[in-house]
UniProtKB/TrEMBL annotation:
One of its GO terms (biological process) is phosphorelay signal transduction system. Residues 8-122 form the Response regulatory domain. This is Response regulator transcription factor. GO terms for molecular function: DNA binding. Keywords: DNA-binding, Phosphoprotein, Transcription, Transcription regulation, Two-component regulatory system. SMART domains: HTH_LUXR (SM00421), REC (SM00448). Residues 138-203 form the HTH luxR-type domain. Gene3D superfamilies: 3.40.50.2300, Winged helix-like DNA-binding domain superfamily/Winged helix DNA-binding domain. The modification 4-aspartylphosphate is found at D57. InterPro entries: CheY-like_superfamily (IPR011006), Sig_transdc_resp-reg_C-effctor (IPR016032), Sig_transdc_resp-reg_receiver (IPR001789), Tscrpt_reg_LuxR_C (IPR000792), WH-like_DNA-bd_sf (IPR036388).
Amino acid sequence: MPANLERRIGIVDDDDALRDALSWLFSTRNHSVSTFASAEELLRDYRPEDFGCLVLDVRMPGMGGIELFEQLKSYSYCPPVIFLTGHGDVPMAVAALKEGATDFIEKPFSDNAMVDLVERCLADDLTRRGEWQTRTSVSQRLETLTPREREVMKLILTGRLNKQIADDLGISMKTVEVHRARILEKMAVKTAMELAALLREAGIEG
């Protein structure tokens, strides 16, 4: 089975030996890995779509793992994040969980426990990434609608008929029909029910 080259595991730790050990560990399980000696090194060419999971050391010279995580959350998508912690850093890691991190693991750790945790994150990333891509795609389609088409769409989603929409907006029924057709075409759906379902799937309010 080829390595997963699309969604790499990113390891950010200033300890050369630990980076090498983790890279070897994940590679033996057929995962693609990239390692970084600092948060700044990761951010230099960072693209969230490149990673299926990020393993961050809590304490590093310069920008620490917690601060790095805050930066990663500012992107349109943040892959699952695991923190590597020493015993004294556990409260910080627990606080990061409340802010959206996936989990943390204390050093020294079991290789099997680490791989199991990362593979759960990769599975979670597939679901979350799919939802993000759907939401992004639908949002991009919505951006193509004119202000009037948005008005008409909102009324369509409430179940209003073409004649009712025409009366509501003070326009002809023929104009409503044209707007409806353009809305469905731009949103790549065939019916108002499909449009409503698409917005629900994307987590976007009508």
